[in-house]
Design a protein that fits this description.
The structure is a homodimer.
Chain A lengths: L6 H13 L6 H8 L5 E2 H7 L5 H14 L2 E6 L5 E6 L1 H4 L2 H17 L2
The structure holds a DNA duplex.
Chain lengths: 111, 111
Amino acid sequence: MEKNWTPVTAAKGVEQALKIFDGKWKLVIMFHLFGGQVLRFSELEKAIPTITQKMLIQQLRQMEVDGVVRRIVHAQAPPKVEYALTDWGQALCPALDALLKWADLRENHDR
Amino acid sequence: MEKNWTPVTAAKGVEQALKIFDGKWKLVIMFHLFGGQVLRFSELEKAIPTITQKMLIQQLRQMEVDGVVRRIVHAQAPPKVEYALTDWGQALCPALDALLKWADLRENHDR
DNA sequence: CCGTATCCGACTAGATACTG
DNA sequence: CAGTATCTAGTCGGATACGG
């Protein structure tokens, strides 16, 4: 069945989608995890040197709640926690590609 | 020729694209103008009753600078100014659709 | 009709220090 | 290793009043 969008509801729909990767670091994190990569907390820290621990954990938690990231805890000492994208998270890739493609179009319309 | 993205540059690329419709009202405005609609300043105000004049003009100006909106001034009294999307602005539609489609996928992965 | 100018509260992210 | 807690500066949007 089809949805019938009004300008307002369509905008709200997109905003909902955007909110899920809104936050200064979520895209960077996602791109590090695309392709099925599984990284530890400390590996993400090293991969993104300018992020603080606070921001890293905050963004990861929100992404987990939103269902784009999976948190994998290994019960050991010392602690080991890994992060990976969910299937749904991986599925964002094509949409982001579309955005990149659109940004590239600008050259043809600018002067 | 192909670009070779790193996680960081890809994220920056998407962020650049996102910035262009970032701001609380830009998407709403765009959805009102999709399909070639041409609207006057006052018509946009009526179409989006909760926006203030300040925000409306601010978002429109930025969108104009960024090249997604075209400003059409008719030299008359009383003043008449119309706004429309550029070709590039219209070209955003598919990418936003991809985002909407992705958001819909969530049902299949949630429980 | 189509804007501009100013003030102000809310939210975000960074710095920093500390813990199981 | 993998977090938590607190404080603060900067940014964004809303309210309101005024101008060509």
